[in-house]
Amino acid sequence: MAAQPKKRTIVESGDGGLGLGLATFIANGEDLGPIIRHSFDSGKPEALMQNLRSIVKKKEVEIEELCRLHYEDFILAVDELRGVLVDADELKGMLSGENSHLQEASTDQLLKLDELLELYSVKKNVGEAITTLKICVKVFSLCMTCNYYIAEAKFHPALKTLDLIQKGYLRNIPLKLLKKAVARQIPLIKLHIEKKVCSEFNDWLVHIRRMAKQIGQASISQASLARQKDEEMRARQREAEGHSHAGPDEHLYTLDLENTEEESALHFDLTPVYRAHHMHTCLGIGEKFRDYYYKNRLMQLNLDMQISTSQPFLESHQPFLAQVAGFFIVEECVLRTADGLLSESQVETTWETAIGKITSVLEEQFSRMRTASHFLLIKDYVTLLGAAVNKYGYRITQLIEVLEKSRDKYHQLLLLECRKQIDDILTNDSYEQMVIKKEYEYNMNVTAFHLEHDDAIPDFPYVTPFSSSVPDVCRIVRSFIEDSVSYLSYGGLMNIYDVVKAFLDRLLIEVLNDSLLNMIYARSLGMSQMMQLAGNISVLEQACGMFLLHSAQLCGIPKRVAERSHSGLTARAVLKASQNAVYNALINLTNFKVDEFMVLLEEVNWIAEEAPDNSNDYVNEVMIYLETLVSTAQEILPLEALYKVVSGAMSHISDSIMTTLLNDGVKRFTVNAVLGIDIDLKMLEAFADEKFDSTGLSDLGKETTFRDCLVEIRQLVNLLLSSQPENFMNPVIRQRNYGSLDYKKLSIICDKYKDSADSLFGSLSNRNTHQSARKKSMDVLKRRLKDFS
């Protein structure tokens, strides 16, 4: 009972709120730190201590109460506890002994365990270090390998090594510093490789531009060699064809085994291009290099296409065209072997641009050309350029077209040069027959142009029927044919024969024939020279066939085909006409010379009282001249020309006598004068018959002989000496004996005709005599002729 009031006093005496809170915290086993910290912070630790003491007292009271209630149980428990304590002490002693024993026994093991753990740690560290070192050593090895490849300029394996480092080892490098250094160097090394291969490629650009001319020249030389072989084969074919006409030849067909293999390919190094392209592709910038290559090559081409102004195009065209050829040969090889570095469209576009520039340059240069040989030289090299690049697949249509456009210009220059040469030859020719003393001269001047039908070698010295201008002109014509064929060959025309023949016709007509006509009409040649010119024209006219066959052979047309062709040269007919012109000129010269002698007719005594015993003086002079004329013409002129000239001279003599009788210079003439003319005519007729037979003209079957050219004056003399002149009016007799006489001319001449001279004594003595029958007949004829007129 006393205990309860005491308890209540303790509770009441304390701070009710704080004590209740402390009791609750203690009962719940919570932390008293915040309350204690708060009490000290608020400066009231005494109240806290007081409340704690109150709680302790309260707990002590509760313990006392509890002990009182459970005293017996507590005593028993204490006794048991004491027994447990004893057992615990024993157990503790045992454990302590065992522990001491165990510690003594495990001390060595623990030391060994510590050593083992330490070794395990070392092993782990060493393994990690070895792994790290292996990675680093591998990376270092790859870096050294990469450096070696770069030093040896083996950029492809260097890039492969860099790629291996970057993809296989860079992420796994344990050392950050090394990893950072390697990562920083990789792009620098790639940039170095790019610069290095670009430097090599730039050196190659310089080198290949320098080499392009040599490459082009070598390719053009191969094309020239192939063309030469082709021409040699054609020459052998022509030779074989010539042999085939003569008969079989066991050595005719042979196979040339030399140089049958193709020429070795042109060698030039594209390794820097391949390497640069491959390196850029591996670096992932292949498109950049392709663009770089294309632009740089275009710049080089533009430089190559610039024409040198410091030297003539004749001197610069070969290196210029060879440079272009070399450029595109390299481009074709790059297109074919560089694995997509160039596209066909790029090469095609570049070629079209270049060929357009070349054709423009050629057209301009051709328009300035004034020499055919220069023209041909450039044309030949252009066609060789076309042949060289065409085998690499480049189209050369524009080149062929520009050559075709210039064809007429070239032949015009060639014609002008031939005109000058032919004019010089004809002007400087002596027009005397050539005297050939050696066989090689004969072969060079006669056989070479087939100017003689007989192939047998004559005895020397040999006098040709032509002068030196004929073989000289033939050489010019043959050279013209060869130059024309050379220009037209290897062009766009498949059949050049017709074109060559047309230009050959122009040469023979516009140049040769015109020059011959100029010589004919210049009147600067004497009779023998004009004869020789006529003989020359005849030989040249016959040579037209040889010119045509030579053209056909050079054009690849078999001789037998050309011989069967019915389309000859128009020039042959033109030269034939020129022969007539020179024959007419010869006739005019002859007649002019005859007129000089016929002037002596004025000295004839037309009223002679007695019949002459000899011929008149004029006819003697004429006979001497005609003899010289025929002998000279017989050596030079063909028979046809000889016939025309002598016939013209005879006709002119007849006309001259008739004209003399018709002119007012002869007032009258007597029968004695007619008898003198008759003697003259007989001499002329004898000469005409003899020359007509001796020259071989009688074998030609001519309807009109030399004698026939004197028929008019002969019929007049026969009529005047006839006993029945009036028979002229009889149509039958007139047609048979006097068909060449004209009524009007005969009337005039008969009016002048007197049967005898009217001398004083003769007149007186005959005054009362009868007129003779002939005089009566003549008077009848005169009257009837007047009536007819």
Automatic annotation (TrEMBL):
Record's compositionally biased regions (Basic and acidic residues): 227-250
Please list where the region (Disordered) is annotated.
222-250
User: What role is this protein assigned?
Assistant: Component of the exocyst complex involved in the docking of exocytic vesicles with fusion sites on the plasma membrane during regulated or polarized secretion. Involved in polarized cell growth and organ morphogenesis. During cytokinesis, involved in cell plate initiation, cell plate maturation and formation of new primary cell wall.
Q: Name one Pfam family in it.
A: EXOC6_Sec15_N
Provide the GO biological process annotations.
acceptance of pollen; Golgi to plasma membrane transport; intracellular protein transport; pollen germination; pollen tube growth; vesicle tethering involved in exocytosis
The compartments listed are: Cytoplasm, Cytosol
> What are the protein's UniProt keywords?
Cytoplasm, Exocytosis, Transport
Q: Where is the Exocyst complex subunit EXOC6/Sec15 C-terminal domain?
A: 398-752
InterPro entries named among the record's database cross-references: EXOC6/Sec15, EXOC6/Sec15_C, EXOC6/Sec15_C_dom1, EXOC6_Sec15_N, EXOC6PINT-1/Sec15/Tip20_C_dom2
Please report the name of this protein according to its UniProt entry. Answer: Exocyst complex component
Using the record's annotation, list all stretches that form the Exocyst complex component EXOC6/Sec15 N-terminal domain.
51-219
The family classification in the record reads:
Belongs to the SEC15 family.
GO CC terms: cytosol; exocyst; membrane
Is the keyword Transport in the record?
Answer: yes
